Amino acid sequence: MKKQVSILMLLALFAQPVWAEGKFGGTYGPQCGIKYLNLTKSQAERLKSMRLALKSEYDGHEAFKRSYQKSYNERINNLMTRPEFDEVTAKKLINDFYRVQLRREISELKLQHALFQMLDAEQRKDWLNGCAGYPFGSDG
Fold this sequence. Notes:
Elements: H1 2-19, H2 41-81, H3 87-118, H4 121-130
């Protein structure tokens, strides 16, 4: 059973780039086909500013995540060493873990939304046809 799970996990990891290919030949996200959207100089400057703000937020998130991970691992070890499985504690651990990731996902969606709002009608059409709603990536 463990071998089957491991194989499935490897397949999922290697299959991911196949579904992540975008209309513009790159991955999806706030940088999805940006060079193909023909941004004006003003739009490009605004996008650069938004990306810098998000990078700063990511840096803070990563620092928090590293410190949280240590606490999380200790809590998991505590759960594993108990004589009886505590489902309530397990659910709390899992909810706490995903709450941390949720913050980052919301930040990414905010950036994607802000980018979309500054596009003109043709750029929005291209974005919706090739990028919207998919995981974040970069193709410059």
